[in-house]
Design goal:
The chain is rod-shaped, with a radius of gyration of 27 Å. A three-stranded antiparallel β-sheet has the order 1-2-3, with helices on one face. The chain has 142 residues and is mainly alpha-helical. It has a single domain (29-141), classed as Glycoprotein, Type 4 Pilin (2-Layer Sandwich). It has one helix at residues 14-65, and strands at 108-110, 121-124, 137-138.
């Protein structure tokens, strides 16, 4: 093995370091938007799954009590026995708590529904958090 001369160094040149940094930055520029898009899609799917669960609980409520909760009773009727009209005959605690949607907003309930005119609508305002927009997620889509 040759000994190093005084002006020779063992290490990376500035060009090599810059090339590695450029490669890393390029990979990050490609991957980060894809990861963010997948995270948003996962939230949309999570909201859809929870809406399906709530719709099942409201359908059970309806079978046991002859009608679903009114719009004024809302999804809260699955957690606490409603006092208003119609008074449920065979109420039970269907849910411990109604979770917020993945964007931190409350789920909405309407009976009769605007989309399910002979049933009920359960929906989230979706990623934009605005009601009645194209990105709303509801039980009419399933």
């Amino acid at each position: 093995m040759k000994p190093l001369l005084r002006n020779q160094t063992a290490g990376f040149t500035l060009l090599e370091i810059m090339l590695v940094i450029i490669i890393i930055v390029t990979l990050m520029a490609v991957l980060i938007p894809n990861i963010a898009q997948k995270a948003e899609q996962a939230k949309i799917e999570q909201a859809g799954i929870y809406i399906t669960r709530l719709a099942g609980e409201v359908a059970t409520y309806e079978m046991q009590n002859s009608s679903p909760p009114s719009s004024s009773q809302g999804l809260k009727a699955l957690v606490e026995k409603p006092a208003g009209d119609p008074v449920p005959r065979r109420w039970r605690n269907y849910e411990d708590k109604i979770q917020p949607d993945p964007w931190g907003q409350e789920y909405h309930y309407e009976f009769p529904g605007r989309h399910n005119t002979k049933g009920f609508d359960i929906y989230s305002n979706g990623p934009d958090r605005q009601p009645n927009t194209a990105d709303d997620i509801g039980n009419w889509q399933q």
